[in-house]
Amino acid sequence: MATDQKHSELLVGAFCLVGLMLLGSLILQFGSFGERFNKSYRLTLLVDDAAGIIKGSEVRMGGAKIGRVARLPVLTEDVNVQIDLLIESRFRIPEGSTLGVASASLLGDKMIIVTPSTQQTGRFIPADTVIAGSGPSGLDAIQSNAEILSRDARKLMVGATTTLQTVDAAIAEIRTSSEELTKTLKKVNESILKPDNLALVDGAIQNVNQSTVEWKKVSADLAPAMQDARKAIQAMEKAAVGAERTLGKIDQRVDDLGPTLAELPLATKAIAQAANKANETMDHVVKGQGLLGTLTHDDQVSADAKSFIRNLKERGILRYQDGESLHPADDPRNRFRGKRR
After folding, report:
1. List of residues 6+ apart from 305 with CB closer than 8 A
2. What is the spatial distance between Cα 75 and Cα 223, in angstroms, rounded to a whole number?
3. Ramachandran region of residue 208, left (φ > 0), alpha (ψ -120 to 50) or beta?
4. What per-residue confidence (pLDDT) applies to 297?
5. Do the Cβ atoms of 27 and 33 come closer than 8 Å?
6. What's the confidence (pLDDT) of residue 83?
7. Which stretches of the chain drop beneath a pLDDT of 50?
8. Can you give the pLDDT at residue 43?
9. In whole angstroms, what is the distance from residue 169 CA to residue 195 CA?
């Protein structure tokens, strides 16, 4: 009895031990405690949007897990999101690869996707490298493209609506114009295109034809006149050439007269000064100043001058005497004159 009890306790203990070991392995597996003992190197990823990325989010390359996110993303001073990655040492990321945030499932879980470059250089991204993240990929890219397409479709629908409204308005205007044109044509047919008016138009056309014939005759008669006019134009051209030559000679004469014209202001100034002097002299004469003024206004001096001039005419310079004061016998010139024989 005691042996059966011990055997049962042993089985229970073994079962509990196995359960604890399985529980511990599950905790290590899903809690990523095993990764803490793996060697890894650090990379820094800068992206514009890290929504959904948390500490421990997976880093995948080609569908395989190669690392994890070391801590929660941090916003930098440049308004970028910094994500620290821990990549297992056994995995090397080729140089030129692109890293970006993508959806892990339809539930909204996020992860970091590494897309290797198509051109392999044999070099790998070293540790502690800062990498600029790419745009969305996978489901996020599809969603972004769908949003862009829906936004463009919405714009197209708005534009199509506006265009259709414009077309409707244009059709209405065309319909109205057609009605007005129908009315106008009806009026034209009833008024302008009557048989009487058409007969008048035919007569006008005949008159135009006759006028054309007459104009041809007149043109033939004008031919000699045109020749005479051409000769007259040629003569005018010759006259114009001669006038141009004459103008050239006149320009040359004007150039020769340039110095003389330059002295005209001085001569004009001298003439003006002489005129001023003459005006001053005439003022003196009018006022009775000077010899001319005295001769003009003084009656005695005028009479003496007349008597002097008369004596000079009658007796000459040598026989001059003042008035009647001298007797012919007292004339000195008669003293030495004898009697004529």
Report:
1. 295
2. 98
3. alpha
4. 62
5. yes
6. 92
7. 324-327, 330, 335-336, 339-341
8. 92
9. 40
Neighbouring-strand partners of residue 115: 98
pTM: 0.36
Query: How much is the mean pLDDT over the chain?
Result: 76
Beta-strand pair 40-47/81-88: antiparallel
Contact 45, 99 (CB under 8 A): yes
Q: How far is CA 271 from the centre of its chain?
A: 62
**Residue 63: predicted pLDDT:** 85
Please tell me the distance from the alpha carbon of residue 281 to that of residue 291, in angstroms, as a whole number: 11
By DSSP bridging, strand 130-132 and strand 40-47 are: parallel
pLDDT, residue 211, reads 78
Provide the token pair at 38.
Answer: 């793996």
SS3 330: helix
Helix (H, G, I), strand (E, B) or coil at 73: coil
Tokens 């890894």: give the residue.
Answer: 40
- Nearest Cα to 112, choosing from 148, 80, 138, 142? 138
β-pair type (110-115, 98-103): antiparallel
Contact 102, 136 (CB under 8 A): yes
The strand pair at 74-75 and 130-132 is best described as: unpaired
